[in-house]
Amino acid sequence: MADIKHFDPDATLETVVRLFWKQGVAATGVQDVVNATGLNRSSLYSTYGGKQQLYLAALNRYVTVRSQPVFQQLAEDERGLPAIADFFRGLISARTSGEHARWGCLVSNAHAGAESNDQEVRAVLDRHHQELCHALRSALETARREGQLTDAADPASGAELLALLAYGVNVRSRAGGDARSLRRTVDAALDSLRAPG
């Protein structure tokens, strides 16, 4: 007979996402997870496996629930550079104000942490990076068609540049960077791609 779970695995995983996101993987122990979710260790282990498997599930959920919808919206936006500017405005706002201020981004935090040495974690990070670059490149290709880019601007390399800038916003905001200085940096980057006039 199958084991009947007396808790919501999806809601529990969201709690775990928030825990790893706010505290970081290294600073979060299994007891922290037990305390935050109210579950006992055996329930956690039987549902998710050990801490590494739980972290991987949380990272995948973060990408699916938080990153991918934003990337899709950006890729489908037909405004070009204004769409990218709005993407960064939203990112800066989320990272510097509200409930998640100074939490950074779970993905960017993983890039900077020892957890990035794990092959499965690295695969999630690489997939996330490819999807981010694809969305930015789509927006830059729209900008090119609309005559918004300088002749020298290349959508592929520009997407990589802007992806690195997004990671920088995430890391700097976690360390206390303020919204105003982050917006100035983003504006300068976009100005470097923008056609004169």
Describe the structure.
This protein is mainly α. The chain is elongated, with a radius of gyration of 19 Å. The chain contains nine helices and no strands. It has one domain: Orthogonal Bundle (Tetracycline Repressor, domain 2). The longest helix is centred in the last third of the chain and has 27 residues. 72% of the residues lie in helices and 0% in strands. 31% of the residues are buried. Helix 4 packs parallel to helix 7, helix 5 runs parallel beside helix 8 and helix 8 runs antiparallel to helix 9. It starts with 8 loop residues before the first helix and ends with a helix.
Mean residue pLDDT: 94
Q: Look at the structure and give the CATH class.
A: Mainly Alpha
H-E string? HHHHHHHHH
Helical content (DSSP H or I, runs of 4+): over 70%
Ends distance: 70 Å
> Overall 3D geometry?
elongated
* Structural class by helix and strand composition: mainly alpha
Could you tell me the radius of gyration in angstroms? 19 Å
Total helical segments: 9
Question: Layout of helices and strands, plus pairs?
Answer:
Layout: H1 9-23, H2 30-37, H3 41-48, H4 51-76, H5 81-96, H6 106-112, H7 119-145, H8 155-174, H9 179-193
Summarize the structure.
The protein has 197 residues and is mainly alpha-helical. The protein contains 9 helices and no strands.
